[in-house]
Amino acid sequence: MTTDTGPAALRQTQIRRVRPGDAARMRALRLEMLADAPLAFLETLADAAARPHTEFAARVAFTSAGPTNAQFIADPGGRLVGHAGGTVAPNEPGLTVIYAVYVTPAWRGGGLLGDLVDGVAAWSRACGRPELLLEVVVGNNRAYRAYQRLGFTDTGVRVPHPTIPALTELQMRRTA
Q: Would you call 141 exposed, middle or buried from its count of C-beta atoms within 10 A (0-12, 13-18, 19+)?
């Protein structure tokens, strides 16, 4: 079966906040994310695969409502093809930190990244947080350029990667 990723498919793809019923599809997407881009996320594929479904379901339920943490998905019907999360920054009340951004390879380049970030941005504004921050591994030029196209600017701040000491991340910001 071939997945249509052309303009018609993009128009039919819903960007929305996760719901508790999305847990199984969200787990499948998370495992895909970790297999495809292991350096971009804070857990390993093996750790995620070993977690029971009930933990995935609890996480999805937690991020499906409320102002402190949210996950947005690209849902064309069937398998999920994109994700972006947002969480409140503990020391900066007007800031939402974007995390776990991913678009399935066959769907890249068609605007889903911007749509997912826009979903997080709208939620952030509704929660009274007018600014967004994200981190990109230094050397991931494809992601860096993609975020620049979405209006993010490099702040010049560099931080250690949270799980791989040999890597550094750069911080980018924009208005929500």
A: exposed
As for how many domains the chain has, the answer is 1
Structural domain includes residue 5: no
**For 21-42, what is the HEC assignment?**
HHHHHHHHHHHHHHHHCHHHCC
Check which CATH number belongs to the domain holding 49 and give it: 3.40.630.30
* CA dist list (Å): 60 to 14, 26, 39, 69, 88: 17, 8, 22, 10, 17
Q: What is the mean pLDDT of the chain?
A: 91
Helix 23-36 vs helix 53-63: angle between axes, to the nearest 10 degrees?
A: 100
Determine, yes or no, domain membership for 97.
Answer: yes
Confidence (pLDDT) at 98: 98
Containing structural domain, residue 58: 13-175
Question: Which residues have a Cβ under 8 Å from the Cβ of 155 and sit 6 or more positions away?
Answer: 170, 171, 172, 173
Mean pLDDT for 137-158 is: 96
Contact predicate 151/134, CB 8 Å: no
Structural domain contains residue 51: yes
The answer to whether residue 8 is domain-embedded is: no
pLDDT digits (tens, 9 = 90+) for 41-63: 888 899 999 999 999 899 999 99
Structure tokens belonging to residue 128: 């009274």
